[in-house]
Amino acid sequence: MASPDADVAALVRGVRAGEAAAIADALARVEDTRPESLAQTRLLVGQLEAETPRAHAVVGLTGPPGAGKSTLAGVLIAGWLAQGQGVGMVAVDPTSRRSGGALLGDRARLRFRPEERVFVRSMAARDQLGGLAPATRAAVVVLRAAFEWVVVETVGVGQSEIDVETVAETVVLVLQPGSGDTLQFMKAGILEIPDVLVVHKWDLGAQATRTRADLEAWLRLTTLESGTWRPPVIGASSQTHEGVAEVARAISNHREHLSHGELDVRRARARSAWALELFTRSYGTFGLERAGGSKAAEDIIAATPGSALDAFSALARRAGFSA
Amino acid sequence: MADRPWIFRTYSGHSNARASNALYRQNLSKGQTGLSIAFDLPTQTGYDADHPLAAGEVGKVGVPIGSIADMEQLFEGIPLDRMNTSMTINATAAWLLALYVAVAERHGVKRGELQGTTQNDIVKEYLSRGTYVFPPRPSLDLTRQTIEWTVEQVPKWNPINVCSYHLQEVGATPVQEVAFALANAMAVLDSVRVPREKLGPVLGRISFFCNAGIRFIEEICKMRAFTRMWERIGLERYGVTDENQRRFRYGVQVNSLGLTEAQPENNVPRIALEALGVTLSRDARCRALQLPAWNEALGLPRPWDQQWSLRIQQILAYETDILEYDDIFAGSTVIEKKTAEIEAAAWAEIARIEEQGGAIAAVESGYMKRALVEANARRVAQIESGERVVVGVNRFEQGEPSPLLQGASSILSVDESAGREQIERLRAHRASRSKSEVETALRGLRDALAAGANVMEPSVRCAHAGVTTGEWSDALRAVFGEYRAPTGVDGAAAPRSDARQLAELRARVDAVSGKLGRRLKLLVGKPGLDGHSSGAEQIAIFARDAGLEVVYQGIRMTTDEIVTAALQEGVHLIGLSILSGSHLALAPEIARRSRVPVIVGGIIPEEDAAKLRAEGVAAVYTPRDYDVLRILREMVEIAAAAHGVA
Fold first, then answer.
1. What CATH class has B7-399?
2. What is the ipTM of this complex?
3. Which of A10, A29, A51 is the last residue of a domain?
4. For tag attachment on chain A, is the N or C end more exposed, with fewer CB atoms within 10 Å?
5. H/E element, B506
6. Same domain? A125 vs A268
7. What is the pLDDT of residues B81-101, one digit of tens each?
8. pTM, whole model, 2 decimals?
């Protein structure tokens, strides 16, 4: 039998080559929540990250339910595929609190030919707040190793959509005409300002135009530091495809903007958030106190080389847990 | 004066045009007075027999019609000027009507003499039957065009049969049946652009196709509510004063949903009682009736089985005295009260739909679909708990073995070579026609589409030129696009199940998930062209309620798509639902190409079930297995065993 290391190396090769079976195996491993599986996962994530080209991008799609996130994702993905680029996607759906079960329905709105370079994984949010699923971050690592683009679609529950900032490098907020609540949260500073704003269902006409005008007016009044990215507001329709190319262009422009230094900042932020999330899920706030509080924890994470999982282990050791 | 008998029909068609023609002539010689054509799924969804999606489906649930050559053969020796033909065709209704008209023209029959109905009701396709092709709005527009064309060109034709039948088949309550069907009819009529004086004749050509269940007193009241509400809509919404044009005219197929696989002989009294619901009351009597066969839950009925159902109609009409009396419910306060109750609730539901922008908007938003999925989940839970009695299924299950099931097969098996023959026939047809005529005719169709003009005359020209069903449909797909309807399962409320059993199942799902390291995940797949999705929907929502993660993508998936989705989603188990009879062609392939166990549910004869199991399918479920929780318990164990955590 092959050694665990050789086994992981073969899996990483398969993932990098975009083999569906290898990607599926890798995802099954990183989704495994049993404590005894952590060492394997850490090995896999570390090697995948080391092998992933820096240009591979992670785009988050967030916004209220019914705004058409999956449909827009489908149209954007088709565009990337047409340019010869592969796409991985993680679509997160809510979980029933009562039963623990979930209906993962986003895939129904995404249809590609089986031979295309696209891999869609649906996930249930389980008990996690913040719009992501527990395994989303690890799944992103796997998919990013395989494809030029990774799309993360969040649950879409408004105010609690905060974690997408810490997994995606470019955050696209998808609104439908009249998405009043989300606008209020954003204006009140509860939600971060996204990198690209899309007023979806643009074919609805007057109401869509009003929503865009409202967003633009508010953004003009919001002070942004000079030299920073100014988020564009784009009207788009997945029905008529109007504006979709513009959304794709805005995402590319934002990637270009990030490449002047901010990408490293965002990736470090993502790494830190992941390590902390794992740590608090395992040891709670009590554990965090033993590690010296959240500021100290962040410093430990930043000082530890390797992946977020390595940082998590270092943090756990520092706090006196045997991880 | 005694009432005239309604039209007796039998919904039929299979294998190919030749075999179906023989069947129709045989049925007519037995005293059937009209034809009801069943088309196969490729014809209904606009694919030629040699299209990959048609694999395994050709000639299965009806007759394949690929071009005018098939249509001519289908009606050979049948006098179209004296026939009343009902065609169950929707997304491609305009095309099949064009073919029918073209065949009549070749026979020298005038358009004005043709009588019959194209079902042509697209809304219920998105809600239950699933043989839609284009998005709702262009589909509705196509319906509008056929109405505007027939009212001028084929004035005795009913261009649309607004269906509530299929809504009951997916679990609709009587109120939902009435409200959704009427809202649908209003959406169609609102779209029609004719001069005001033509609105009466148009209204007079709108007919309905309803269902009748076993609670036949309530069904009588439902039909009376329908009748009154339609008359009021005709007068108040459309200003039609002619009472005759405002009359609610309807045909019926009685309920198949309640027919059982267990003790199937019990279905004969069920069918007879259901027929009473739509024949007993003279004021709300159907115009045409078709009865299912006693063995529908087992597979395709044989000619003898269909004859038995025809005899039920004939006994009712000719032996009993029901046709001799005026309305026997006139003046009944009990019937009046129940009718008023259904009517009031249906008006309220119509108001809710109107508030959302009408039937089309309520389809697009998933509102109607979700309501139906929830209603059906309640029905399933009631049968499971015994609250709704089904004799031979959840009460009085013990009985003598049925002699009807003894001996040779008690169903019709379609010759598997029918599909291959049809493909050869199609290819021979393509080779024999004039290429340039086909091109000219198709160009005419495309020009009409581009100009937004009525497609009917260009379609009749395409029919004469020998254009195929797939070619005609592709021309429309190119302009209208294709559509995937909301599945109705996202956010559908779970019904009340037995709390203790459910809790036990959830605990088991939790335990298995714990050992797997991640939550047990199920892919529910509907391969092939079959659009009857209630079984898949019910498994999906009950499985979610049992604590599984469920991926469900809706209908019409290719085997490739299902295998790919199962791999990408990392599911532990695949559940397939196939009701079109193409299970042998589809399920083994998916089982062979997947890493995880595959189970299949559908109308599957035991002989086929054995074949499926031999070819690697882990378990087969049929209508006999009504207990969803039991099915789910077994599925969890199958998955656990396959992944070594039993």
1. alpha beta
2. 0.93
3. A51
4. N
5. helix B499-516
6. no
7. 999 999 999 999 999 999 999
8. 0.88
